[in-house]
Amino acid sequence: MEHDKPKVKVTKNGPYKVSGTVRLAKGIMAQDEAGTPFEWKEGGILPIEETYWLCRCGNSRHKPFCDNTHRSVSFDGTETAGHQKFSELAITVEGPDLILKDAGVFCASARYCNLAGGIRFLIANSDNPESRELAIQVAHNCPSGRLIVSDKKTGEPIEPSIEPSITVAEDPGRKVSGPLFLKGGIEVVSSDDDSYEARYRVTLCRCGHSNNKPFCDGSHIRAAFNDGDESIN
Ligand code: FES
């Protein structure tokens, strides 16, 4: 049935309307001793209904949910992102065993790509099993979907099969709250009813400061966005 399909609708100068009973949980960016994020730690499941509304302006007192504060702060949520496909935006980096597609415009400054010498180093050494595995892990942890790794022999993207869900990101390394991390190909529809390309991993801005709305562009770090979560305070 139409209403069961997981979907995020961007509302004009307002919140995200999430429909389809999409699981919602906190996600903590765990970092190694060098301060590089290397995995996501689940930080608790949030209670939801079939349809719920998530704050997009960054000012709700009930984050991550909307409490209508966007009205009193006259939030300008104009969508500035284009509708080009990932394949039109990405550059290609070839290694011996893996191919990386990298669309920098989607970067959310999550920094997983810096692990173990960096994603490009790992791709260049992808004939080494350990480097290959790490490159795949790094790409899958990249919440924005900027990075997609493919098998060089088959040309097929290597993506785990995951149920649609939303992670509310927290970044203790920068002591800030991060974006909404959409997993599993959830459809995102603009306020003028135009769907963005469905991707397995997408980050949506919830601080209100992105210059690439509705997507996160890392501006939450500069804005010191803080939703009060104990992991960053
Ligand atoms: S949450 Fe990342 S720019 Fe707003």
Bound heterogens, unique: FE2/S2 (inorganic) cluster
**Overall geometry:** globular
Strand order, main sheet: write it out.
4-3-9-10-12
Q: Report the average pLDDT across residues.
A: 96
The main pleated sheet reads as: 5 strands, mixed
Q: What is the strand content?
A: 25-35%
* Alpha carbon gap, first and last residue: 42 Å
The secondary structure category is alpha+beta
- The portion of residues assigned to helices is 10-25%
Element order: H for helix, E for strand: EEEEEHHEEHHEEEEEH
Helical segment count: 5
Gyration radius, in Å:
17 Å
β-strand number = 12
What is the count of structural domains?
Answer: 1
pLDDT below 50 for ≥5 consecutive residues: which ranges? none
Task: Please tell me about this protein's structure.
The protein is an alpha+beta fold and 233 residues long. It has one domain (1-233). It has five helices and twelve strands. The chain has a five-stranded mixed beta sheet, covered by helices on one side. Strands 5-2-1-11 form a four-stranded mixed beta sheet, with no helix packed on it. Strands 6-7-8 form a three-stranded antiparallel beta sheet. A hairpin with a 5-residue loop joins strand 1 and strand 2. The N and C termini lie far apart (42 Å). The model has no long low-confidence stretch (mean pLDDT 96). The structure holds FE2/S2 (inorganic) cluster.
